[in-house]
Design goal:
This protein is an alpha+beta fold and 189 residues long. It contains seven helices and six strands; from the N terminus they run H-E-E-H-H-E-E-H-E-E-H-H-H. 41% of the residues lie in helices and 25% in strands. The longest helix is centred in the middle third of the chain and has 16 residues, at 66-81. The relative contact order is 0.17.
Length: 189
């Protein structure tokens, strides 16, 4: 079973291919409402209605949206197994927003996976893109923003071999502090 950070990586790669310069990833864990929400928004080229309808087709011919068409049905299937759903809103020239809702407590919800590794790989490989990540749980909210990190680093690149592990540890510690995806560690033990 694919973890949610792998889904995030695939969707963000589509945003990068759509020439986004800003990508926001938001996760909201609300066990009380039995909701695990992932939202990915970008300012890429966007899609018209005809293309938007086609991205749901896993048999889309090779081209700009073919990878998206493989990812979308997998993500949708994982969400629907938990009583959730996936929606996409897009406008040409304005970007795209994908929202995936999962049943938080459902046994079929994939684990979150290694978000720290996913974020650092994306940021290091795409230093010109502004990544913003917000993760909220009942214990609090954590925000990671590449522009803030770049300011603190004062010219040291995000992809520097000594910086990447420090950024990963920073993200992991902050997610641990807000008890991100805590139910998954309980289910897996």
């Amino acid at each position: 079973m694919k973890d949610l950070s792998s889904h995030m990586m695939d969707i963000v790669q589509n945003s990068i291919r759509a020439e986004a310069s800003w990508i926001q990833i938001r996760i909201c864990e609300d066990p009380e409402a039995d909701l695990f929400l992932i939202e990915i928004q970008d300012n890429g080229c966007g899609m018209d209605e005809a293309t938007l309808a086609r991205v749901r087709d896993p048999f889309l011919p090779a081209g700009q949206y073919a990878k998206w068409a493989w990812e979308f049905p997998l993500l949708q299937q994982n969400a629907e197994r938990t009583g959730g759903k996936v929606s996409i809103v897009s406008q040409p020239g304005q970007g795209t927003t994908l929202t995936a809702r999962f049943g938080h407590s459902h046994l079929d919800r994939p684990p979150l996976g290694d978000v720290a590794e996913t974020l650092t790989l994306l940021a290091a490989a795409n230093p010109a893109i502004h990544f913003s990540y917000d993760h909220s749980t009942p214990s609090g909210t954590y925000r990671f923003d590449t522009q803030e990190i770049i300011q603190v680093l004062e010219g040291v690149p995000l992809g520097h071999p000594e910086i990447l592990p420090a950024i990963q540890n920073l993200i992991r510690e902050n997610l641990k502090e807000i008890h991100a995806d805590q139910s998954m560690s309980i289910r897996q033990s």
